[in-house]
Write a structure and sequence with these properties.
468 residues; alpha/beta; Aspartate Aminotransferase, domain 2; four-stranded antiparallel β-sheet; 40% helix; 12% strand; PyrdxlP-dep_Trfase_major; pyridoxal phosphate
């Protein structure tokens, strides 16, 4: 076996990494370069000969640095992106060094056992049924896909149809019902599964985006086709929670499967103060959430849970003569996820939970929500600023009123100025036909000082005489 020089390139990577992380509090949060500049720095002819690994790492870091968005910063408030806490980040480095293919127990015993244990801990943290199965996927998209694949299997099985063997041609038609303010990953999952986005019935919601149980009951009564109901906990704009307990009662009475898309909102169940928002969530049939959001582990990390493990395995599992399938007590991850070869993403999850504990996870979630409330309170105290949602979680929708009446244009201009300012990073959205700034507080390192500094920058950028 060759003995390469590991020390030099790893030392370079460590030094560059530490410099980047320690500079986060002071560097602009957004990228400070353009696509042409990045292309000029990174592009070039295909290398013809080997290069020194340390020099490769140094050159890559130098060229990419200006094009990095500081999503690890305590003042990054876009897209519900969490940071990575120190234990999870360090475990992710080990994950890369160990380079385990976490598909089979035989191929990665430690990775398999870590996912088994971390999956059990996650189920306990989130208040889900102890018998539920768990899968470690890339994020909310594949978690929704996997859960809906299990739902598709089970709902068609009840109709006497084996979808894994026979496909969808000639199968009983399924219905998917979801709130009008659902996340687009639900529609994409329906497309990927061959159900088609047109099969989704949009159920009416209230002014915060919560599904109305009576509207769901009316929609279910309109057809006798087997149905899958997708509820949402933590709307991506308002943070609002569907009344999952009532939805489960209505849906199960009609024989439907209930899936809960809880990409970040499901973490409220880990908080004694916020757990009431998820009341009844344990009565659902499947759940999706992210680790790279509120658990603050590195990308990519998502979780799918299913109250019907047989359906989960039937939808995802595979058997082949060349594989070494796990014996009794040996968990093969490929029976629970769409991927075959994949990263052992359970190690950072395990480390994060060990480092935080139950109380640390609760404190992280509650602190972020408190800071979101501080954002809303401080911004709403100023003329020309309007908070569009009830701040029940970590999401704040902000609208900036203009003297000339072009509130949408002014709001979008403020968002762009804030990004150029570099103090913090927020993104825009459209809520109920109106442009808004969306602030999401999801990072373990954010503190009150970050909020105060960001509020000052936002208000400065909202002034009529701010730079256009």
């Amino acid at each position: 076996m060759e003995k390469p020089d590991w020390a030099a390139p790893l030392a370079e990577a460590y030094e560059r990494s530490l410099a980047y992380l320690t500079a986060l509090p002071d560097r602009p949060v957004g990228s400070v370069t353009s696509a042409p500049d990045l292309r000029a720095a990174l592009d070039g002819p295909l290398p013809e000969a080997p290069a020194d690994p340390r020099e490769v790492i140094a050159g890559l870091a130098a060229a990419a640095e200006s094009g990095l968005v500081g999503t690890q910063s305590g003042r990054f408030f876009g897209f519900v992106v969490g940071g990575a806490n120190p234990a999870a980040l360090a475990a992710d480095w080990l994950t890369t060094v160990w380079d385990q293919n976490a598909c089979l127990f035989a191929l990665a015993p430690a990775a398999s056992m870590v996912e088994e244990v971390a999956g059990k801990w996650l189920i306990q943290l989130l208040g889900l049924p102890a018998h539920a199965s768990a899968g470690f996927v890339t994020g909310g998209q594949m978690a929704n896909f996997t859960a809906l694949a299990a739902a598709r299997h089970e709902m068609l099985r009840r109709q006497g149809w084996d979808v894994e063997a026979e496909g969808l041609a000639g199968a009983p038609r399924l219905r998917v019902l979801a709130g009008r303010q659902r996340h687009d990953t639900v529609d994409r999952a329906a497309r990927f599964l061959g159900l088609g986005s047109a099969t989704i019935t949009s159920v009416d919601t209230d002014d915060q985006g919560r599904m109305l149980p009576h509207a769901l009951a009316d929609a279910l009564a309109g057809s006798d086709r087997p149905a899958i109901v997708c509820a949402q906990v933590g709307g991506v704009n308002t943070g609002a929670f569907d009344p999952v307990g009532d939805i489960c009662a209505v849906a199960h009475e009609a024989g439907a499967w209930v899936h809960v898309d809880g990409a970040f909102g499901l973490w409220a169940a880990a908080s004694p103060r916020l757990r009431h928002l998820t009341a009844g969530v344990e009565r659902a049939d499947s759940w999706a959430t992210d680790g790279h959001k509120w658990l603050n582990v590195p990308y990519d990390s998502g979780f799918v849970f299913c109250a019907h493990p047989r359906a989960h395995r039937a939808a995802m599992g595979v058997r082949a003569g060349y594989l070494i399938h796990g014996a009794e007590g040996e968990r093969d991850a490929l029976d629970h996820t769409p991927e075959f070869s994949r990263r052992a993403r359970g190690f950072p999850v395990y480390a994060a939970i060990r480092a935080l504990g139950r109380t640390g996870v609760a404190e992280l979630v509650e602190r972020c929500c408190t800071l979101a409330g501080s954002f809303a309170e401080q911004l709403a105290a100023h003329d020309g600023v309007e908070i569009l949602n009830d701040v029940v979680l970590n999401q704040v929708l902000v609208r900036f009123r203009a003297a000339d009446g072009d509130h949408d244009g002014h709001t979008r201009a403020v968002i762009e100025r804030v990004r150029r300012d570099g103090t913090c990073w927020t993104n825009g959205t459209t809520w109920q036909g109106r442009a808004a700034m969306r602030i999401s507080v999801s990072n373990w390192s954010t503190d009150q000082g970050d909020v105060d500094r960001s509020v000052a920058a936002i208000l400065r950028c909202a002034q009529p005489d701010a730079e256009a």
